[in-house]
Amino acid sequence: MTMHFGEALASRALPLSSRLESYLAVTEFDRPTLVIDTNIVAQQYLALKAGLGSADIHYAVKANPEREVLSRLVELGSHFDAASRGEIELCLSLGARPEAISFGNTVKRASDIAFAHQVGITLFAADAEEEIEKIAHHAPGAQVYIRLLVTNSQADWPLSRKFGCDRDSAIALMGHAKMLGLDPVGISFHVGSQTRKSEMWGAVLDEMAGVWHDARALGHDLRLLNIGGGFPAFYGEAIEAPTAYAAGVMAQVRARFGAVERVMAEPGRGLVAESGVLACEVMLVSRKSSLDAHRWVYLDIGRFSGLAETEGEAIRYQLETARDGEAEGPCILAGPSCDSADVLYEKRPVHLPLTLAAGDRVLIRNAGAYTSSYSSVGFNGFPPLAVVAI
Ligand SMILES: *Cc1c(COP(=O)(O)O)cnc(C)c1O
Fold it and tell me: Does one domain contain both 106 and 127?
């Protein structure tokens, strides 16, 4: 059975696109390489946009900052969420307009705020008094949205307590911002990355709507709701397809917030993950003892060269080999570096063909998000993840 975009539920990976298939068939790689089909990025953008309706998509650049990905999104009219001067410069250099860029990191360097202000960016995030003061000083008159802490995340990759503040602090920050001449326009939050079903947003949206209505009742003229990211990709567990998912989220937003002047969403993973396939290679297959049930399979890519999200075995990538269909057995999967933390899956071993051997190609599916951007510059002498956009 083949699933297509637009169907309500995806319970297996789509076949590789014909462009990826043909490229991989004729290309030899001498190092792990992420191959991105920018047509899939475009398809995902349009599918999400169809469900989001009038809400603006601000692509979270950190998920995959490849120039071809960003240019394609500029062409489609996407907006961008940037976290640093570097990401802002990248977006501007590819034709994004400053009005279409939000500076969404809540921890910004003062000189980066000044730079953003100077190039015409007017929308900033904050979750602390000191940050409000930095923005007021370096970007006078700017619009700010206050990031709220999320406590009810049902995500596979929750974002912890690092970002956001509670209700009372948020309302106090709006007052502080106004006093300093800023325009506190709204709130933001993030449900947690890889929130697989739209219904999982309900509890978070209830909490956020409470703060929104309280702040408005206290006289804050909120006009902007930033619902963040969290849009899922397929990694083996069923997810809702992008249009149905985005429409499901928006219906819940409308039910709680009513008609909001401006809604923005910041998909990262949901926009780019499924556009990328990682071609890598088996370096070694071994057993620690003749009695071991598990083989150890060492790949030429690991935790430090792109697969950071295997931390805690949170994100479980789908693997494909040319020997799929043959008899399989359980394997512990590890990376190539000399670091004992560089083990990808051990608590829940992966099943791979028994004949798998050094030199075999392994494809890691749906790996377009948080791989190249997480790869070290050269830990242990392994080069950063190579990327090709087709
Ligand atoms: C990383 C990030 C996102 C993207 O999250 P996904 O779960 O990949 O969609 C969105 N907004 C902010 C502020 C982020 O930091």
Answer: yes
Is 338 a known active-site residue?
yes
Shared domain check, 188 and 49? yes
Q: Does some domain include residue 113?
A: yes
- 366 CA distance to ligand 1 centroid (A)? 17
* Ligand 1 touching residue 190 (CB < 6 A): yes
Nearest residue (by CA) to ligand 1, atom 5, is 229
Residues 268 and 282 placed together within one structural domain of the fold: no
The answer to the question of residue 11 being in a domain is no
Residues 96 and 225 in one domain: yes
pLDDT in tens, 146-192: 999 998 778 887 777 789 999 999 999 999 999 999 999 999 999 99
DSSP string, 232-294: ---SSS-EE-HHHHHHHHHHHHHHHH-S-SEEEE--SHHHHGGGEEEEEEEEEEE-SSTT-SS
Q: Is the CB of 62 under 6 A from ligand 1?
A: yes
Report the b/e string of 44-77 with b at 16+ CB within 10 A: bbebbbebbeebbbbbbbbbbbbebbbbbbbeee
Is 104 close to ligand 1, i.e. is its CB under 6 Å away?
Answer: yes
Cα–ligand 1 centroid distance for 288 (angstroms) = 40
Q: Of 220, 249, 273, which closes a domain? A: 273
Ligand 1 midpoint to CA 81 (Å) = 8
- CB of 368 closer than 6 angstroms to any ligand 1 atom: no
Q: What is the pTM of this model?
A: 0.94
CB of 70 shorter than 6 A to ligand 1: no
Total domains present in the chain:
2
Q: How far is the CA of 368 from the centre of ligand 1 (A)?
A: 14
CA distance 232 to 230: 6
* Residue 336 belongs to domain spanning: 18-35+276-389
Both 43 and 74 in a single domain? yes
Q: Which atom of ligand 1 is nearest to the CA of 104?
A: 13
Assess if residue 63 is contained within a domain.
yes
Which pLDDT does position 2 carry in this prediction? Answer: 37
Percentages helix, strand, coil for the chain (3-state, rounded to 5) are 35, 25, 40
For residue 5, pLDDT over 60 is answered with no
